[in-house]
Amino acid sequence: MVAVGLLAYPLYTDFSQGRLQHRLRTQIASPQFKQSYEAHAAKVGDPLTRIRIPKIDLDVVVVEGTTASALKAGAGHYPSTPLPCEDGNVSIAGHRTTYGKPFANIDQLKPGDLITLDTPVGSCTYAVQTAPFVVLPDGKVPGGGTVIDNTPGEKTLTLTSCHPKGEASHRIVVKATIVKGPLAGA
Question: What is the pTM of this model?
Answer without folding.
Answer: 0.87
